[in-house]
Design brief:
This protein is an alpha+beta fold. Helices cover about 45% and strands about 20% of the residues. It has helices spanning about 5-15, 65-75, 80-85, 90-95, 105-120, 145-155, 160-165, 175-195, 205-225, 255-265, and strands at about 25-30, 35-45, 50-60, 135, 140, 225-235, 240-245, 275. The strands form three sheets. It has a three-stranded antiparallel beta sheet with strand order 1-2-3. Strands 6-7-8 form a three-stranded mixed beta sheet.
């Protein structure tokens, strides 16, 4: 038995805004009965102010689905369309005082329905998460939807992904592919965080690193082909070098300088530039 909050129980037993708006300005439908959850969201919007004046829902699903849909309508009424789009599945869950981890996909279904309704209202294409390759055939979940859920909710395991998207919750045949997507996203995130948190170097540290890389990685490569390079100066983020040996007569001098710059950008900092002095 799931542990539901009082708010979830109340909105399940006494849902607010249940039903369908006649002649709505926007309609968003997500899921299907075959997959176990379906939600239809209808909105009335004041076109002069772009403000949502009324919102109603019809849903086929569990207590969490009904409560999440009801919470969504309460959260978006009175907001402009752009303000409503800033609401996330986390906001829906927080409004309910929390949801069981296994039921978080119900809150995700709510904000997807809102995005679809807004696309319908604006006459634009459906959200891109509906595109992509189908990974979970049991529930029709795409690779893009899985990637988005991982990123937006900081998911770490396949079980988390199943809880938020239902992918992998059927026959399980798609679990290896879900594991691959999870690994790819986490690897990308690790790289971005490493770059973002790279320690700021003092000028002395920067010069020392440049000298070390020049001596150990760049010079040996050039010397192996009869060339050489000397570090002349470091002026802020400008690295001034002088080419020696065969490099002075080479027609590929510009390429050599760019290769040196690329290596220093990679190992020291993206802000560095290299020029011949």
């Amino acid at each position: 038995m799931w542990e539901y909050t009082e708010k979830v129980r109340d909105l399940f037993l006494h849902p607010k805004n249940a039903g369908e708006i006649k002649n709505p300005d926007a309609v968003g439908e997500i899921g299907n009965i075959v997959c176990g959850d379906a939600l239809k969201l209808t909105l009335k919007i004041d076109r002069a102010t772009d403000r949502i004046t009324d919102a109603k829902f019809q849903t086929f699903g569990c207590a969490s689905a009904i409560a999440s849909s009801s919470a969504l309508t309460e959260l978006i009424k009175g907001k402009t369309v752009d303000e409503a789009l800033k609401i996330t599945n986390k906001d829906i869950a927080e409004y309910l005082g929390g949801l069981p981890r296994e039921k978080m996909h119900c809150s995700v279904m709510g904000y997807e329905a809102l995005e679809t309704a807004v696309a319908n209202y604006r006459g634009t294409k459906l959200p891109k998460i509906e595109e992509g390759e189908i990974v979970c055939k049991c529930f029709g979940v795409t690779d893009k939807k899985i990637r988005r859920a991982i990123i937006e909710n900081n998911l770490k395991t396949v079980e988390d992904i199943t809880n938020f998207t239902k992918a992998g919750g059927g026959c399980g045949e798609c679990i290896p592919e879900i594991e691959k997507i999870l690994k790819d996203v986490l690897d990308e995130k690790t790289v971005k965080e490493t770059v973002k948190t790279k320690k700021k170097l003092t000028n002395i540290q920067k010069i020392a690193m440049i000298q070390d890389i020049m001596e150990k990685e760049i010079k040996p490569l050039l010397q192996a082909h009869g060339g050489d390079v000397e570090l002349i100066d470091v002026d802020g983020n400008k690295v001034i070098v002088s080419l020696r040996g065969m490099c002075t007569e080479c027609l590929m001098t510009d390429v050599t300088i760019k290769d040196i710059e690329k290596k220093l950008k990679e190992l020291v900092g993206d802000e560095l530039t290299v020029e011949v002095g």
